[in-house]
Specification:
binds beta-D-fucopyranose, 16 helices, 13 strands, 3-stranded mixed β-sheet, 14% strand, globular, single chain, alpha/beta, 481 residues
């Protein structure tokens, strides 16, 4: 297995998942601080208060990356470090942390790739409605512009929003992520404002940044597969694909929302209308209007309803040309038609093959097909980077002082092989970032799930590279295996 010359090998993290030091150097509260400190929201009552203490250990962490032969490092900037209250003037101490980080990355010949939004919205903006409030997109533009000005010299590659699907739907509709709402109209609105924020940041980027700098977005996609070959299940998979993939990729690359999903949300009463807005949430009633999904969807089809959140010019901003797509891929989703389900008239079925420690099915084959489909339907030859791919495993530090994770090595190898197949089939895939460099705060799962190629002993904050880290170093060295 050989990758093309220049294929970029990296690892990824996110601010709230690793930094800790949540009250240091003027950092403001984020929605994840608030959420994690709300009893019952995160497994084990875990919070990001200390995390991997990367805020103090960043220098050694960069040295570790260099030891592992990483060529690139994808990290995220904590919005509340730069804007503790969500607006105003940038907090210099927050900026300095990332300046030092970027400098050291360069000193160790590691290419920094910065993500602007990996879910840590300043709580002050949540008080005003968060992403359900259109105004938040403009606050994001201000933050993005400040980050470009302050850090743009050292960072060539920028991702605007990480996984808007999670931020909007896990956060506002399904209640599993901050801010923990169960309000479908708010979620649909939030999804649009996240995309708008992306578009506004891209515009700021083009105004402020010179040639040789690149901006894109990071989307998580699943392979939505039908439970059977029958037509109803195929239609169910198509709806899930609409919910998860097309709702974000169509606006960015085609400049429009998918009609079938607009019709779906309209029929469900989730497209427009009142939202609860602030934290606290309300019962998850809003999609119930959908009743028997398929029928209503079909009935509402043809001619797209106009959502009240869509303003003239929005789609042009959202679909402005970008320089790459970041893809986060973890698993596939098996979809079965179920007219009694309030959730798009479908149910998702349990995995049919081996799973990770999170019960996510290990489905490398789907990655190849997904990449091919992304290029054909959306990116049309634009560079694609896998910005995240990896597996939670029940890793243990053994008495020999090592962490043996053959399951993760197999996972990474099989997914990289699938990525290689996609390249051989003509997909313009330019690089791969393993999720994650370090074990870290895995959102609602807390510290119970370990994704790192480096083990973190949270009691001592010792970093112990797992077998997979040594394997990955070899792969990078040989550009394959
Ligand atoms: C993705 C997130 C990332 C990490 C992985 C496992 O959805 O972007 O922060 O939690 O899942």
């Amino acid at each position: 297995m050989r990758f093309p010359a220049g294929f970029l090998w990296g690892a990824a993290t996110a601010a709230y998942q690793i930094e800790g030091a949540v009250r240091e150097d003027g950092r403001g509260e984020s929605i994840w601080d608030r959420f994690a400190h709300t009893p019952g929201k995160v497994a084990g009552g875990d919070t990001g208060d200390a995390a991997c203490d990367h805020y103090h250990r960043w220098a050694q962490d960069v040295d570790l990356m260099a030891d592992l032969g990483l060529q690139a490092y994808r990290f995220s900037i904590a919005w509340p470090r730069l804007f503790p209250d969500g607006s105003g003037r940038p907090n210099a101490r927050g900026v300095d942390f990332y300046k030092r980080l970027v400098e050291r990355l360069h000193a160790r010949s590691i290419r920094p790739v910065a993500t602007l939004y990996h879910w840590d919205l300043p709580q002050a903006l949540q008080e005003k409605g968060g992403w359900a409030n259109r105004d938040t997109a403009w606050r994001f533009q201000e933050y993005a512009a400040a980050a470009f000005r302050e850090l743009g010299e050292g960072v060539d590659d920028w991702a605007t929003i990480n996984e808007p699907w999670c931020a909007a739907f896990l956060g506002y509709a399904l209640g599993q992520h901050a801010p923990g709402l169960t309000d479908w109209p708010a979620a649909v609105r939030a999804s649009h404002h996240l995309l708008l924020a992306h578009g506004l940041a891209v515009r700021a980027f083009r105004d402020l940044m010179g040639p040789g700098k690149r901006v894109g977005i990071t989307l998580n996609m699943t392979a939505a597969e039908p439970a059977s070959e029958n037509e109803a299940d195929r239609a169910a998979a198509r709806r899930y694909d609409g919910f998860f993939n097309r709702w974000f990729a169509d606006p960015v690359f085609l400049g429009r929302y998918p009609e079938d999903m607009l019709a779906w949300y309209e029929a469900a009463g989730a497209l427009s209308g009142p939202v609860s807005g602030t934290a606290g949430g309300r019962p998850s009633e809003t999609l119930s209007g959908a009743g028997s999904g398929t029928t209503r969807c079909a009935a509402a089809g043809g001619g797209s309803p106009a959502p009240d959140w869509l303003r003239p010019g929005d789609m042009a901003l959202i679909s402005a040309p970008i320089d790459f797509l970041g893809l986060n891929y973890y698993t596939r989703t098996i979809c079965q038609n179920d007219p009694s389900s309030r959730f798009f008239g479908l149910r998702t079925l349990p995995p049919r093959g081996p799973v990770t420690d999170q019960n996510w099915e290990i489905a490398p084959r789907c990655l190849r097909d997904l990449l091919a489909r992304i290029q054909q339907d959306w990116t049309r030859g634009l560079p694609i980077y896998i910005h995240e791919n990896g597996a939670a495993m029940a890793d243990e530090l053994t008495p020999d002082g090592h962490v043996h994770d053959p399951g993760r090595i197999a996972f990474l190898r099989d997914h990289l092989a699938a990525a290689g197949d996609a390249i051989a089939a003509g997909v313009n895939l330019k690089g791969y970032f393993v999720w994650s460099l370090l074990d870290n705060f895995e959102w609602a799962w807390g510290y119970a799930k370990r994704f790192g190629i480096v083990y973190v002993d949270y009691a001592t904050q010792r970093r112990i590279p797992k077998d997979s880290a040594f394997w990955y170093r070899e792969v990078i060295g040989q550009n394959g295996w």
